[in-house]
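Hi! If you just cloned this repository, the fastest way to understand the data is to look at a raw example. We've pasted two of them here, unedited. The first protein comes first, obviously.
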Amino acid sequence: MPRDFNLWLSTFRESIADYKYYIDFSTVYKNIEEYRKELEYLNTLIGSDNIEEDFCNLYSAHPSILRAIPLLIAKREKQIYCLDEKGGITYDFECENDEDAAFKFGNSYALKDRLCYFMRETGLFELLEKKLTNNLIDYAIGVEVGLNSNGRKNRGGHLMEDLVESFIIKAGFIKNKTYFKEMYLSDLEKISGLDLSALSNEGSTAKRFDFVLLTNNHAYACECNFYASGGSKLNETARSYKTLALESRGINGFDFVWFTDGIGWNSARNNLKETFDVLEHLYNLKDLEDGCLLSLKNK
C-alpha cells in the first residue's frame, strides 16, 4: 500500500536533543584541568593593590600563565589580534617562557608593558583588582560552559547519525562487517563488486555516504540528517537526494536510503514530497522505531 506523505510528515519530531547535547561537562572539566596550574597562579592577583607590578613579577616567576589568558577572554586561539589608536598588534600566548615569547610588536613597547596594556584594555586587570570574581577556576568553568554551548550545532549534527546507528546495531548489523560508517563510493564498489559509476559521474565525484549496509545480495548506501528549522539547505538536500535516487534506479543489487526527520521540513515539504514520490527507502525516526531496517536486512 502506498504511503501517505502528509501522515508520514505529521510524525516528524521537534527535537532529538539528548541530555549531553546542551553542555558536554566532561570536556569542560578536561579543558579546565589543562590550565588549572596557571589559573591558580593568576588567582594570587585577585584584590591586588599594585596589580601591574604584581602581574609582571608573577609572569617573571611563571611565564606559563600566558597560556591561560586567552581562556579568560573566551578565546580558543592563542594568537590574538588587537587594534586601537596606537595601531594593531598580534599577541602570541602559545609561549611558556620569555625566550619563546614571540610577540609581534610593530613598535618599541617592552614585552611586560605590552602585556600589561593587554590586560588593562581587555578588562582583565579590573576583573582581578575589584574582586569581581573570587576564583579564576570557577570563572573559567563559566567561560568554558559558554564556549561549549557553541558546539551544539556540531553535536546536533552527530545526534541523528548516532540514533540511526543505534537502530542499525539493533537490527543485527555488525560494524565493519555488515555495516560501515562514512564510506566513500569507491570503497563501496570494492567491497560490493558493483559498478556505481552512474553515481560518481564516471569517477569524477568523490561521494561519501554516512552508512553502508550489506546483506547477502544487496548494498544500501545511506544518508541521514535532522532539521529542527527551515532554510535553503533543506531544498538543496531534497533535490540532491532525488537525483541520487533516480540515478541509482538501474543498478541491480544497490539502493539509496535516506533517513531524515525534524519539523524544519514543514517549510520545505514540497521538495521533500518530490523525493518521497521517487525514493522507495525514505524513512523517519518513527519508521526506524517500527523496524524498517529489519525489512532491508531480510530483503
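Ok, and the second one:
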Amino acid sequence: MTEHTIHVAVIGCGRIAGHHCRSIAAVDGVTLTAVCDLVADKARAYGEEFGVPWHTDYRTLLRAHPEVDVVAVITPSGMHHEHGTEMIDRWGKHIIMEKPTFMRPEQLVDAYGRADKRGLHIFPVFQNRYNKAVTRVRQAIENGELGDIRIMSVRTRWCRPQRYYDLAPWRGTFSHDGGALTNQGIHHVDLLRHLGGEVARVNATMRTLGAEIEVEDTVVATLTYGGSAVGNLEVTTAARPDDFEASLSIVGSKGLAQIGGIAVNELQVFTPDPAACAAHSEDFSTCVYGNGHEKMYGDIAAFFRDGTAYPVSRDDALASVKLLHAFYRSDEAGDWVAVDSDDQSTRLGRPNDAVSDLYRTPEK
C-alpha cells in the first residue's frame, strides 16, 4: 500500500462500534469513510454523529467507496469468519477483527491463509493489552522485578441478567456468542498468556446459574504453565445485582502485582514500586472500553506507514483462541486437557444457520 490516509469502514453498529469510530477520529493517518448496519436507525445514528455516509448493505457500501482500505468487522462473533473472509476474498480488504477474533481456531487459520494469498492483513483486537497497568506489569515480568511467576489468578464477578441475553438472538448461543468466558472473560484469558506465558494444561468446570441460556455464565478452572507456575480462573456473569470485580493478580518470587478496576485499568498492588500504582492507573468510568482502541489504530497506521509490526501476530491470536477452546474442551471432557492441541470444542462456534441468516445480507 502506498503512503496515504488509511480509509476504514465499520461494519456493524453496536455499542463498541461507536468507540471504534471515536478512536479512528482521534488518530492521524486514519479516517472513517462509512458505516453499515442491517438496522437503519443504528447505521444512521453513527453516520450522522461522525459525519460519514451510512448504509444497511455492506456490499453497497464497498461498491460506493472503493477507497476503503480496511474493514472493521464488528458483527456478532459467530459471523466474524463469514464476514471477514468475504471482505478478503471478494473485496480485497484488510480486516480488523473484534474479540474473540474468530470463534474457532480452524476459522482463524483459514482466514489468515486466505489473507496471505491476497497479500492482505488481519488485525485482531485485544485493547486491554494497551492499558497502562498491563504494560507496566508486563515490563516488570520481562525485567525480573517480580521474579519468577508462581501463581496467576483471574477473578471476574459481573452481572448479566436475562434481559441482557434477550437483547438479540445471537446472545447466549454457542454458535454466535459463547458464554461468560468467550464474551466477557476473553480479555482475561488473553492476559493469562500475554503476562504469564503459554498455558500448558487446564481443568475447567462450567455452569449456567443465573439465566436461561445454552451457554455458561459461570466457569472456574485451574491451570498449569510450562514451568512450575500454576493459575486459577473464576469468571461469572451470574453475580447479582451488579458488577463487582474484574481482577488479575500475579504472585512472583520477588513480589505481588494486582490489576483491577472496570477493565484491568487500575494497578492496585505493585510491591516492587508501590508509587507506580497511581502513575499506571487509568480512569475508565466514562468508557469501559478504555483507551486501547485508539492506540490500536495508531499501530495500524504505523504498520501501513512504515512497516512497524502490528503487536498481535497470527500465532499470538491463534494461541489465545486455542486457550479459550481448551477451557470448553476440559468441561466437555470432565478432565484436564492440553492447550497445545488441534482439538476444538464441540460446542463453541458450532454452525447455526437459523441465527446466521438473521445477520446475513442478501445478494441484490
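That's it. A detail worth noticing about the second one: Residues 314-333 form the longest helix (20 residues).
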